[in-house]
Input
Amino acid sequence: MSLKAQLTDDMKTAMKAETLDSYARMFNDNAVNFAAIRTDYPEVKIKTFAPKILDAMKEVNYRLLEETAAKDEQFREILESQRAYLAKARAWTVVSDYAYIKDNQGK
Output
């Protein structure tokens, strides 16, 4: 293997490791901080946006993505690839994470 190929391989390995490490740290920090908020500020109510607001945000986001994709071929290819992947990933999430949490809430 050439030096360039080896360095490329090493860089990809390092990026994958950093991505996993960052995700794990972020997940942990969010869990710890959320627990602290619930303990230190029990009067704080955690809410989500109303469905009407979420729908409006999704609509604007979709429109902006479509407008950008119409102007940029590479962006369009990436967007299509991402959407295809998310369709698979979300289907799996429903079976794995969501079903597990739903079936084991409070156990």
